[in-house]
Structures are given as C-alpha cells and as structure tokens.
Design a protein that fits this description.
Length: 119
Amino acid sequence: MLRLLFYLFAVVVLPGAAQQFTVPSEVNISSCPITYFGQKYERLNVNFTSENFVICFNGFYDPQNKGSCLLTPKGESAVFGTGGKDPELEEYFHQNLPTITNSMECFVNINTNTVSLAP
C-alpha cells in the first residue's frame, strides 16, 4: 500500500506552483486533499531525519510512534507542488494501478534529489 502512495505522489513539478523546503514543514494540500482509507488529509508534515525524508499525515515523524508516514532515502531538499486534472497522468495510474478506478481531479507532487517518483 505504501508503494501506491509513492505513485500517487509521483509527478513532475509545475513551474510556479512548487515550494522547496529543507527544514520540517507543514504543507497545505487543501486544494487537492488526499483521501486514504476513508480519511481526508488536507495537510502533510514533511521533515528530514538523519537517514530519511519523511512525509506524515498526522503530525511530524516520531520514531517511537511511527504513525501514518512514508519514508524515502534522505536528500538535500524536497520540492512540493500540486496540479489539476491531467488525462495522461490519470491514464498512467489506471494502467499501472488497476485497483484505482475513480477519476483523478488533481495531484500532489513531492520530489527529492535522491528519489524520482515521476513516471
């Protein structure tokens, strides 16, 4: 299931719509909320640990209480962006993730310099 979330975050950054961060940050995704197992998320918490770049849905990463987080290899920085409906990207997801059947109204993108999740 985490691999699915990585794919959902995977897209190219739109010029002018990107935000770069190198310190722990709360990212507002209310323009494109993520619904995961029935829970709607309008904010993401992102931070860097000594080993990872971490994206969490419920507060910042706590190694003792891992919570709902995605961990990727650590990079120097990360770039965040959102975008609107993209028929080519939607087709890519439907072909590669056949369990996703609903339409894609928008997307959230988070990339680091060590992990490229773009199709």
